[in-house]
Amino acid sequence: MTLSSIDIVDTEPSRLPPPLPEPAVEDLRLDIIMGTLADPLRLTIVRKLLLESEAYDHTCGWFGFDRPKSSLTHHFKALREAGLIRQRQYGLERRSRVRTQDLDARFSGLLDLVKAWRPDHSM
């Protein structure tokens, strides 16, 4: 039996730091999620995690955005508070991943739409 890349991403390694505060699955709201994804940078972050992620968690630097750290921190916090990503604190850095299982359970098909979106290359 072989595992797909999605299976690997969804399998949590042992001994992870606890996740930062996030909404429970039953508290995820489509209006908040859609409002959060309305920002092209946030949509790009989620899409990149879905399509290019090979490891479990990623730091802000992995994305390669030429933006101030304070701006990126704001966007990642918005994604976490909306319930789109899970973040864990590793020393001084936060690492992120998409809450694929939770989002698929609550809003089936949403992540497929994010994957299918094509970003404007002006970012």
Brief sketch in words of this structure:
The chain has 6 helices and 2 strands; from the N terminus they run H-H-H-H-E-E-H-H.
Alpha-beta content class: mainly alpha
Mean pLDDT comes to: 82
- Major pleated sheet: 2 strands, antiparallel
The topology string of helices and strands comes to HHHHEEHH
Helix content: 40-55%
Count of extended strands: 2
Strand order of the largest sheet: 1-2
Q: What is the straight-line distance between the termini?
A: 40 Å
Describe the overall structure.
With 123 residues, this protein is mostly helical. It contains six helices and two strands. The protein has helices spanning 5-10, 30-37, 40-52, 69-82, 100-106, 110-116; strands at 85-90, 93-98. The longest helix is centred in the middle third of the chain and has 14 residues, at 69-82.
Features of the shown structure:
123 residues; disordered N terminus; mainly alpha; two-stranded antiparallel ribbon; 6 helices
List the helices and strands and how they pair.
Elements: H1 5-10, H2 30-37, H3 40-52, H4 69-82, E1 85-90, E2 93-98, H5 100-106, H6 110-116
Antiparallel strand pairs: 1-2
